[in-house]
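Entry 0007
Protein: Cytochrome c-553
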Amino acid sequence: MKDLERNGVATEEEIYNITYYGKGRMPGYGEQCTPRGQCTFGPRLPEEDIKMLAAFVKSQAENGWPKIDGDVE
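Output (C-alpha cells):
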C-alpha cells in the first residue's frame, strides 16, 4: 500500500483509472481510452476486466502481496 499511496493511488477507482486511461509512460488499456497517444495500440480490456484487476491489485497490496497458488519462483 505504501507504494500505491506514494504514487497517489490509494483506491480501486484510482487503480481503475490508471489502467483504463494510462498515466505517464504507461498506456491505457480501456476500450474507450483517449487521447490516442496515451492508449495502447494493442488489444484493449473490457471494463469488467479492468474493474476485477483494480480490485485484485488493491486486495493484494492491502495484504502485502502474498503468494498465489501456482506462483513460480
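Curator remark: DSSP finds three helices and two strands in the chain. The mean pLDDT is 89.
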